[in-house]
Design goal:
Layout (H helix, E strand, L loop, with lengths): L13 H9 L4 H9 L4 E6 L2 E6 L2 H10 L4 E2 L6 H4 L8 H11 L5 H5 L2 H21 L2 E3 H18 L5 H15 L5 H4 L7 H20 L5 H11 L5 H32 L1 H8 L7 H17 L6 E5 L3 E3 L2 E3 L4 E4 L1 H4 L42 H18 E7 L4 E3 L3 E3 L4 E6 L5
Parallel strand pairs: 2-8
Antiparallel strand pairs: 1-2, 3-5, 4-12, 5-8, 6-7, 9-12, 10-11
Helix pairs in contact: 7-8, 7-17, 8-13, 9-11, 9-13, 11-13, 12-13, 13-14, 13-15, 14-15, 15-17
Pfam family, one: p450
Keywords: Heme, Iron, Metal-binding, Monooxygenase, Oxidoreductase
InterPro entries: Cyt_P450, Cyt_P450_CS, Cyt_P450_E_grp-I, Cyt_P450_sf, Cytochrome_P450_monoxygenase
Amino acid sequence: MVTAADSTLPELDAGELVRWRADGGRLVDLLTAAQRLGPVAGFRIGDRQVVLVTGPEEVQHVLARHPDTYVKHGHRAKVLLGDGLLCAAGEPWRRQRKLLQPQFTVRGIRAYEPQLRAAVAAVADRWRAAADTGEVRELDADLRYFSLDVIWRSLTARPLDEPTYRQLVAAGDSLAAIPAFAPATGESDADFSRAVADADRAAEHAIALARQADEPTLIGVLLRAARELPDYDETLVRDELLTLMVAGYETTATTLGWLFLLLDAHPEQRDLALSAGPAGSAERAAAIRALIDETLRLYPVAWLMPRYAAETGAVGGHLVPAGATVLLCPYLTHRDPEVWPTPETFRPQRFLAAERRPAPGSYFPFGLGPRACIGAQFAVREMTLLLEEVLPAFRPEIREQPTEAGYRLTVHPDGPVRAVLHRAENRL
């Protein structure tokens, strides 16, 4: 409810927008400037009102308490992903989420644990061979293959093959190239025609393999829904399948890529995690999870989350008019020094039990509320299993790395990460 006490939204002035465009027009710089005005701030792009929300209490208000007021309003990847869970809204989204949610609980993930471990073993085998020969590996490519292999095995109960990998990467590259917020950058919609063709071929192949599988598969869940539910047809199976494959792998691979870059800069954190307890112990698992959590703090899965104000409301005491674009930015919230002490420092210990947990709304790498990422636990589990295997066994020596981050749908290392893998002299 809007009251007379609601104050005018602080906004960047037109001169600041002109200077921002003259300086190169990076969206992250515009949002950083707006954040300096407070936890709720704004700017205008043409006649569009944009509201940036970065304060924890205000984030909680938008995403967790009022998800029906601040809603997802279409998605620019819809031409590729159709009506899959990422792009769906309203009642169709609720039905689809209800169907898939049990597969991504702790209990549901156990059914796919053998597939996750098989994908981890395949990476370890490749890295052992590379360590023995001194081959320079593209870590980002290896991690991308791993993430896709995990999803493919969970969908089909078969290991990923190279032709399908290339098709999925081509589709994923098109998705990853989408700007996080195009109205600010002025970029036009991408041409997805080739990506759609690649994705469709991969989907057909996956469905054919899943029909032959004797083990539980995610596609099996979708195909059963198409047989039994009146609103679930084979087109929706394709859309959900592609959402899981194409939208799911890049975020995990990117997080792992950042983690290895951070460990290269802070090798003591690897040793601290491994010395927390013996292999297989709860203490080591918690320390490895802290590595992941801290990486996600610095480089959240979705660095920007747009919402649409379906009706006029108030956020943090400021009027937000109906029709406004509301931007949640975990990248900036996670780096707010008023919320996170020494926010630019990679310090996984802040996520261990001895440290004080931050307030609700201050950490949301997978989103918050009903539209939080359904695959969050799955992603963390596959990353944890990989790190439990490779961190004690290998010490990557980074030979080439990007000097900047790229800010598109994800925040990613803007270039390849090449490394020589050394076997760890003393496995901890």
